[in-house]
Amino acid sequence: MRKLLDGLYNSAAALAALFMVGLLIMVLLSIVSRQLHFHVPGTDAYAGYLMAASGFLALAHTLKRGEHIRVTLLINVLKGPAKKAMEIWSLAVATLLALLFAVYSCKLAWQSRAFNDISTGSDATPLWIPQIAMALGAIILVIAFIDELVLEIQGRRITAVSGEALRNE
């Protein structure tokens, strides 16, 4: 199961990286087209879609690597059972919030498809297509939070610490 979950998080991160490369291509295409005096319709919209997709698909991988922003002021003061209880409570609340976010992201994509909602730009993209990446990223984030919660309850959670916080300028 661990291999499957890690594979899911890594696959989502790889897909996010692919979308990030697509974003770079869209931005470069927009710059080059302006310099050479031709217009490629929809580059701004597609750059936005690709940016959103890369951000949402990277959420779970970022969580599992300990790179999400956490306010640890209270947790760092607590010790023993109180610290574990606070971690479980925090992860449970985060799981619930991520679940609500995933449900409403899926609902948004579903409604966009049902109502044939399209973008208002010149590209006229059906909005459910870019919204799928948001919904998928949110679902994978819920899975990652449930994973973290279960590991914490079992006492097997390894809290990854970002190296960024350790750097002092």
Brief summary:
The protein is mostly helical and 169 residues long. The chain is built from five helices and no strands.
Give an overview in words:
- This protein has helices spanning 2-35, 43-57, 59-64, 80-114, 128-154.
- The chain has one domain.
- The mean pLDDT is 90.
- By secondary structure, it is an all-alpha fold.
- It is elongated and about 65 Å long.
- Helix 1 packs antiparallel against helix 2 and helix 4 (80-114) runs antiparallel to helix 5.
Task: Considering the chains and any ligands shown, give keywords for the structure.
single chain, 169 residues, mainly alpha
How much helicity do the residues have?
Answer: 55-70%
Report the structural category.
mainly alpha
Uncertain segments of ≥5 residues (pLDDT<50)?
none
Number of structural domains: 1
Number of helices: 5
Number of strands: 0
**Helix and strand pattern:** HHHHH
Largest sheet: none
Judging from the principal axes of the Cα atoms, what is the shape? elongated
Give the C-alpha Rg.
Answer: 20 Å
The portion of residues forming beta strands comes to under 5%
